[in-house]
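#structure-requests
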Amino acid sequence: INTAAYGGVVENNKLDAHGNPLQTGDATKNKLILEGGTIQNGYGADVRTQAGNATGNVIDLKGATVSGSLYGGALTNTAASGSATGNTVNYTLGSRTGGTIDGGYVDNAKGGSASDNHVTISGTNLGSSTMEVYGGRSRGIGDAKDNTVNFGGSSRAQYIFGGYLTNETANGESSGNNVAVSGGSVNTVWGGAVHGRGKLHHNTVTISDGTVTNVYGSQLDNANTESEATENTVTITGNSGTISNVYGGHANKAGGVTKNTVNVSGGSVSNLYGGYAAQTGAASNNTVNVSGG
């Protein structure tokens, strides 16, 4: 298979009374198991209807070669308004040469939330130094909540996000996302990140082993936001090499950082920041706890 493989696809070609295609149709509990062969992209489910949702779909990659991207559940209609919820990607064996892995993905500026999606990557020599991993990612107006990424073994990645919102004008929030790194190597890890104007809170990153360069419990990256990165936590218990920078909360352009926490009990870190406001925001009531390392 040289192009794509799908656990499930939803298209609605039925017409309403006015001759327009109906926009409904969900994808639920589909599964794509990849044990051999070669594909470009894989989808637990691809929802192509405008108002459809992707819920509870799964990819198990345990032997195939994938040259492109993997999506547990994806909304790909150019006017999609639904959500991707409860989708999963498990990657335990096989070759990945780049691209992205998304537990749940919403690919439209008017789309909904990517929440409660999960990615697990753990094995020998998995991934690549250019691979990007997202527990839940939305380009829409919804939220990215309660997504998880578990990354270990001798896996490799460039970026890992627990939850990520990319719409600069939206007010959705990224909260309750969790990333755990127990091995492998990755350049930068974010618990939660927002390019829009919404809230960013209660995201967590835990590093217990592996090689990591930069860690953000949360990051705001919008010059027009008045929001804050609040009550996000990074915990470092061990790692290989030295982590360059660790931020509990980080505001890159505007917005504040409040009540974020970094806990270090092992490993090696060059710079620790409970909260870091790079430009016009304020940093207040952030904490760094060092008990070892």
